[in-house]
Specification:
Elements: E1 6-8, H1 35-38, E2 45-48, E3 51-54, H2 55-76, E4 82-85, E5 89-93, H3 97-118, E6 127-132, H4 135-142, E7 148-151, E8 164-168, H5 173-188, H6 195-204, E9 209-211, E10 214-216, H7 224-232, H8 239-244, H9 253-266, H10 270-281, H11 287-302, H12 306-319
Helix pairs in contact: 3-5, 5-6, 6-9, 10-11
């Protein structure tokens, strides 16, 4: 299921805890450094894709990546893209350099302030981001009437389209952050994850802001009114049933799954839950068993039954306002 394309379907309006016992960490990827040991490289060295490089070697690798990227762009599109790179994201764009500077700054702040809180390992490959000129061009080229899409590795389709985020200039930073979360998950697991986890976690980061080099999170967003309407109509799927499914069958699935992560954030349990789901649960369980283990982990972290969690989730949803900054428990 993780091989599916991940989309943002609705309009973007606006843009701790971790494992205490390192012995519990399951390293699914050999020869990868723990992130905390790689963020302070040796003097004049760069740790990149499981290699310790001098700066010249690193620059040569990035030059080769950019050349290959340009070649693939020419093969795929008859469009005049400019190209630049950050460490783990190579970027193609059609906007001005100044406009791209703003986007790149938001990308870097989000990556630097978010990735290491949820994930343990230095990324195992570099991703690409293609920013089309506008929405019409995006739809024409991609065939999706959406705001963003991430293509993970897939046995289908050409290799030069894989592990690529597609969006367009001015789609809003929330689109970029949403799709980056999909790429973070792809960077850290080869295992199937349930759709409510993938889309709920990604959708949680549709709303935020960058201030003084920091990423500010914990907001409700434009999905909340849909969830409130479903709750008031008493049409909400029971939370336990919702979490047991591999794929969301509800039209409001994005709204429901996003707000679950808002609830976990408010309870100050989102980080250990994501840690556990990615590194403990998804490598060892599938299907309903994975859902049951996820429920057990939520109960363990919060000290509440799934029925209590559901009651608090519903209460919080009904009393919250759209675009409200939630208050996190200490």
């Amino acid at each position: 299921m993780r091989k599916l394309v991940f989309l943002i379907i609705l309009v973007q309006i606006l843009s701790t805890e971790s494992f205490a016992d390192e012995s519990k960490r399951k390293d699914s990827f050999h020869n990868r450094k723990i992130l905390l040991t790689s963020i302070k490289p040796e003097k004049d060295k760069v740790f990149y894709l499981s290699q310790t490089l001098n700066k010249h070697e690193y620059e040569e690798i990035k030059k080769k990546e950019i050349k290959d990227f340009k070649d693939d762009l020419k093969l795929l599109y008859k469009l005049d893209f400019k190209v630049r790179y950050t460490k783990y994201y190579n970027l193609a764009y059609m906007c001005s350099e100044k406009e791209m500077d703003v986007i790149e700054e938001k990308l870097k702040i989000f990556y630097n302030d978010t990735y290491s809180r949820y994930f343990f390992y230095e990324p195992r490959f570099t991703l690409r981001i293609i920013f089309f000129k506008n929405k019409n061009q995006f739809i024409k080229q991609m065939g999706y009437n959406t705001y963003g899409v991430y293509y993970p590795e897939s046995p289908e389709g050409p290799r030069n389209t894989e592990r690529t985020l597609y969006t367009y200039y001015n789609s809003g930073p929330g689109t970029l952050w949403h799709e980056m979360i999909h790429s973070f998950i792809d960077l850290n697991t080869d295992n199937d994850v349930q759709q409510w986890f993938n889309e709920g976690f990604a959708s949680f980061y549709e709303m935020g802001s960058t201030q003084n080099g920091k990423f500010i999170e914990g907001y409700t967003n434009w999905r909340l009114p849909e969830l409130q309407d479903i709750i008031r109509k008493k049409q909400l799927t029971p939370l336990k049933k919702f979490l047991l499914s591999d794929e969301m069958r509800e039209d409001y699935g994005y709204s429901a799954s996003r707000f679950l992560f808002c609830y976990l954030w408010k309870e100050n349990k989102i980080i250990p839950f994501v840690n556990s789901y990615v590194y403990e649960l998804s490598p060892n369980y599938q299907g309903k068993e994975l859902g049951l283990k996820a429920i057990q982990k939520m109960e363990e972290l919060t000290g509440k039954s799934i029925d209590q969690i559901e009651a608090e989730y519903i209460s919080l949803a009904l009393k919250s306002k759209t675009y409200e900054k939630l208050i996190q428990k200490k």
